């Protein structure tokens, strides 16, 4: 009986010690770390990325942040929200961007304010421009004999309706919106990269660059892969030796699975007007 109780006591002590170390690792900063944040796929929301950035900023053991950007861009507002958080983060800690296959349009937008940008020689980046795609099913409606009746409070309330074409006056209004958002993009790149506005404007016609071309244009700082970016981030932060790299594990989310597997064409049927920072080859 005594032997049995002794074994139970030892198991209990080991369990307490294990829990203590688990708690210690979670609550007490240990060592000097580089946080890796992945921003992949179209950018249609910003909450997850912003929460990750803020979380790493609060952790004193995280000395630098590496953003792995592999995105063709997406909606304007989420891109601008992530840009702002990257800008704030770069003012407090070293933030290094590692571009994957594509970091274009909104993907480049969010990268611009980083401390340093790495791209692979064959990365597709740039695409500094804005696009608005408006479906027009008027011809189909006429063929099947369906007509849309509209009651509105102002003549432009149904601007960009999918049930008819765009008039001359409406096109002028929408072009004005795009020009304004485009100018915001140019200004953001100018401030983030510390480039002259005119220099950015000269290449801000939507053209796409390879990483090698982007280096010559001043849009990225160095050619290299994600390992190069991590090592450089550690060096910039003053970390000696091999840095400990931490990243947030993606939890299961039915919402994310459904969202990520809905074709953009289907999504567009439910939203007639979208102003996007996106590269669409």
Short description:
This protein is an alpha/beta fold. It is built from 11 helices and 11 strands.
Structure characterization notes:
With 281 residues, the chain is an alpha/beta fold. It has a single domain (32-249, 264-278), classed as 2-enoyl-CoA Hydratase, Chain A, domain 1. It is built from 11 helices and 11 strands. The strands form 2 sheets. Strands 1, 2, 4, 5, 6, 8, 9 and 10 form an 8-stranded mixed beta sheet that branches. A 3-stranded antiparallel beta sheet has the order 3-11-7. Helix 2 packs parallel to helix 3. The radius of gyration is 25 Å and the shape is extended. The chain starts with a helix and ends with a strand. Residues 23-29 and 264-272 have low confidence and may be disordered.
């Amino acid at each position: 009986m005594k032997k049995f109780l002794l074994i139970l006591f030892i198991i209990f002590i080991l369990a307490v010690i294990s829990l203590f170390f688990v708690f210690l690792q979670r609550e007490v900063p240990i060592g000097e770390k580089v946080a890796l944040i992945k921003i992949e796929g179209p950018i249609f929301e910003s909450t997850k990325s912003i929460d990750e950035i803020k979380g790493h900023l609060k952790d004193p053991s995280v000395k630098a942040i590496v953003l792995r950007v592999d995105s063709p861009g997406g909606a304007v507002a989420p891109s601008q929200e992530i840009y702002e958080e990257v800008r704030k983060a770069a003012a407090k800690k070293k933030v290094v961007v590692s571009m994957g296959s594509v970091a274009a349009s909104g993907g480049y937008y969010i990268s611009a304010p980083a401390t340093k940008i790495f791209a692979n020689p064959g990365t597709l980046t740039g695409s500094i421009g804005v696009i608005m795609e408006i479906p027009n099913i008027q011809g189909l409606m006429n063929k099947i004999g369906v007509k849309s009746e509209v009651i509105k409070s102002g003549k432009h309330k149904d601007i960009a309706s999918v049930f008819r074409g765009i008039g001359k006056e409406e096109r002028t209004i929408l072009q004005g919106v795009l020009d304004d958002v485009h100018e915001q993009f140019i200004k953001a790149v100018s401030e983030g990269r510390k480039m002259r506005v005119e220099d950015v404007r000269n290449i801000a016609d939507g053209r796409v660059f390879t990483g090698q071309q982007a280096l010559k244009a001043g849009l990225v700082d160095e050619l290299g892969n994600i390992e190069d970016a991590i090592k450089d981030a550690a060096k910039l932060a003053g970390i000696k030796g091999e840095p400990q790299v931490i990243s947030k594990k993606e939890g299961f989310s039915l919402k994310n699975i459904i969202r990520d597997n809905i074709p953009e064409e289907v999504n567009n049927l439910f939203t007639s007007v979208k102003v996007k920072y996106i590269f669409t080859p």
